[in-house]
Specification:
With 224 residues, this protein is mainly β. The chain contains 1 helix and 16 strands. The protein is 7% helix and 41% strand. The chain has a 16-stranded parallel β-sheet that branches. The radius of gyration is 18 Å and the shape is elongated. Keywords: Repeat.
C-alpha cells in the first residue's frame, strides 16, 4: 500500500565547498589513480580506464565520458557539471557528497553503486542502470530520467523534485521515506507494488491507478 499518512524524512543534501583547484594536465586517467583537488575542464576522457580511482574535492566540467571505465571509483566532495557521454561505467562506484549538474548521459551503469548525499540537478539521463544500488539522501531535481532501472535497489530518503520519470522500473526495489509528490511526471512501468515506503500526491494516485490495479491483479469493469 502507499504510505501517505505521515511526512517522510527529508533528504540531507550535500554541502560541497571546493578548495582552490589545480588543472588536470596528465592527459589520461589511470586505474586506481588518486585525484585530489583537481579541475577537469572540457577534458575528453572517452574510453579511458579510471577503474578504482579516487576523486576528492574535484570538479569535472564539460567533460566527455563516453565508454569511460570508472567501475569501483570513489567520488567524494566533488561537482560534476555539464558532463556528457554514453555507456559510462560507474558500476559499484561510491558517490558521497556529490553534485551532478546538467548532465547529458545515456546508458550509464551504476548498478551496485552507493550514492549518499547526492544531488542530480537538471540535465537528462537515458536508461540509467541503478539495479541493486543503494541510494541514501539523494535528490533528483529538475532533471529528466528516461527508463531508469531501480530493480532491486534500496532508496532511503530520496526526493524527486520537478523531475520527470518516464518508464521507471521499481521491480524488487525497497523504498524508505521516498518523496515522489513533487515529481513533474511520474510514469512507472514495472514494480508499482513496491511503492510501500513512498509518498505520492492524490493526483499521482489517480494517474497510477491503472498500473496499481494491474500490479494487484485487480480487474476494473463498467457497472453491470
Amino acid at each position: 500500500m502507499v504510505r501517505n499518512d505521515r511526512v517522510v524524512k527529508p533528504a540531507r543534501r550535500p554541502e560541497v565547498r571546493l578548495p582552490e583547484l589545480v588543472a588536470f594536465t596528465d592527459g589520461e586517467l589511470t586505474p586506481d589513480g588518486d585525484y585530489d583537488g583537481l579541475e577537469f575542464r572540457d577534458t575528453d576522457l572517452a574510453g579511458q580506464d579510471g577503474g578504482g580511482a579516487r576523486f576528492l574535492d574535484c570538479a569535472l566540467t564539460g567533460c566527455a565520458l563516453d565508454e569511460t571505465q570508472l567501475h569501483h571509483a570513489r567520488v567524494v566532495d566533488s561537482v560534476l557539471s555539464g558532463i556528457r557521454g554514453v555507456g559510462t561505467d560507474l558500476a559499484e562506484a561510491s558517490l558521497r557528497d556529490v553534485e551532478l549538474v546538467d548532465a547529458r548521459l545515456g546508458g550509464t551503469q551504476l548498478h551496485g553503486a552507493v550514492l549518499e548525499r547526492v544531488v542530480v540537478r537538471g540535465g537528462k539521463i537515458d536508461y540509467l542502470n541503478l539495479r541493486r544500488a543503494r541510494l541514501k539522501d539523494v535528490v533528483f531535481e529538475g532533471c529528466v530520467l528516461v527508463e531508469p532501472d531501480f530493480g532491486g535497489a534500496r532508496l532511503e530518503r530520496v526526493e524527486f523534485v520537478d523531475c520527470v520519470l518516464k518508464g521507471a522500473d521499481l521491480t524488487a526495489a525497497t523504498l524508505v521515506d521516498v518523496d515522489l509528490r513533487r515529481a513533474a511526471e511520474l510514469d512507472i512501468t514495472r514494480g508499482a507494488d513496491r511503492l510501500s515506503g513512498a509518498v505520492i500526491s492524490h493526483a499521482q494516485l489517480l494517474d497510477l491507478a491503472p498500473v496499481l490495479a494491474a500490479a494487484l491483479g485487480l480487474r476494473v469493469a463498467e457497472d453491470a
